[in-house]
């Protein structure tokens, strides 16, 4: 619950209430190098618990584990009953400008009010960083209801001018590149991480929906997913900006989140003189193939509580030349769309998140 001493921070502040959000975002992106990884000027702390997964024939992403310490170890039960977590000292203006969930929390909303609150991709809309101002297609909507076991909250260690938020995002492994996008508005690091298989598309999409991020990042993720699903066309489209066909890219993103699929037709390719084509064909195929953990993939060793340092020059790989190896996804391309949510994954998440939900009230109070 919120501490009585915490001072809510509505966004935008009263002095900027009449300033267009597009201008505010541009200014924040321009100033990002001055604030990125500057913990001295940070005015909030985000604490992300890393779930402990006890895996036995659990459907999951191909990545076996996430090690926030960066030591190459796998995750298992924490020592001394201390929950593994990622701690980031950030700036609330950047988070509030891009995330409807964090904007509501910083403004004083009760976490309990967020349980059944859908995060609509078009509310509030945000402008594109490119020449377009894409809006979601009126007939396609992607919503996500925050499950009770993933409720964020302000921790008792918060002060009046420095809130400390417990933020149990669905996929801690992709949060670093997502925070970089929030600060800089650039997608190349996310693209590089997806291409290299460092993060999973489904994991970062879950984080995007959970945080209620703006439409721009969803358009990019739709573009990347469409490129991965159709490797024969990826070389053609990769030479053009990802926001060239925003409505189609967004439709692909929303459909993938619902376990469906929308394909680019010839008029949507980069070689066409036409812009967006609203006659995309849908494929209602289901997500048939899944990667399954074996007992050998279960996690071992321990990970202590650590802080994650964010680096401004998070190294992307060299630009992919036309004809290079296609991005890795960890699943067969015969899979039709993605299940949203993956029932088995969510059931397993609820089993092991009950433990860290109970521990959080004890471990984080001592923090």
From TrEMBL:
Region Disordered, annotated ranges: 116-142, 265-346
Biased composition (Pro residues): 121-139
Protein name per its UniProtKB record: BTB domain-containing protein
Organism of derivation: Dendrothele bispora (strain CBS 962.96)
Biased composition range(s): Acidic residues: 265-312
């Amino acid at each position: 619950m919120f501490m009585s001493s915490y001072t809510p921070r509505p966004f935008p502040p009263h002095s900027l209430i009449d300033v267009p959000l597009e201008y505010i975002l541009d200014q924040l992106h321009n100033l990002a190098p001055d604030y990125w990884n500057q913990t001295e000027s940070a005015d909030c702390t985000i604490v992300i618990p890393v779930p402990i997964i006890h895996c036995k024939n659990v459907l999951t992403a191909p990545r076996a584990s996430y090690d926030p310490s960066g030591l190459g170890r796998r995750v298992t039960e924490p020592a001394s009953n201390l929950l593994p977590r990622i701690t980031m000292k950030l700036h609330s203006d950047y988070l509030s400008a891009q995330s409807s969930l964090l904007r509501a929390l910083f403004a004083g909303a009760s976490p309990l009010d967020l349980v059944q609150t859908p995060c609509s991709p078009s509310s509030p809309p945000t402008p594109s960083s490119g020449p377009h101002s894409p809006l979601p297609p009126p007939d396609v909507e992607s919503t996500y209801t925050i499950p009770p076991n993933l409720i964020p909250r302000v921790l008792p260690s918060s002060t009046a001018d420095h809130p400390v938020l417990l933020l149990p995002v669905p996929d801690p492994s992709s949060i670093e590149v997502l925070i970089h996008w929030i600060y800089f508005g650039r997608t190349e690091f996310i693209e590089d991480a997806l291409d290299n298989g460092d993060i999973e598309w489904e994991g970062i999409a879950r984080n995007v929906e959970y945080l209620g991020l703006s439409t721009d990042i969803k358009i990019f993720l739709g573009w990347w997913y469409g490129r991965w699903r159709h490797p024969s066309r990826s070389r053609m489209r990769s030479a053009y900006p990802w926001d060239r066909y925003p409505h189609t890219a967004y439709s692909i993103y929303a459909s993938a989140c619902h376990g469906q699929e929308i394909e680019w037709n010839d008029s949507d390719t980069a070689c066409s003189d036409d812009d967006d084509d609203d006659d995309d064909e849908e494929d209602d195929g289901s997500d048939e193939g899944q990667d399954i953990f074996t007992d050998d993939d279960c996690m071992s060793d321990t990970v202590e509580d650590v802080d994650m340092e964010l680096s401004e020059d998070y190294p992307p790989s060299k630009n992919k030349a036309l004809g290079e190896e296609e991005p890795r996804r960890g699943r067969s391309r015969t899979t039709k769309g993605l299940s949203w949510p993956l029932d088995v994954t969510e059931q397993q998440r609820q089993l092991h998140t009950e433990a860290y939900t109970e521990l959080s009230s004890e471990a984080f109070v001592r923090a």
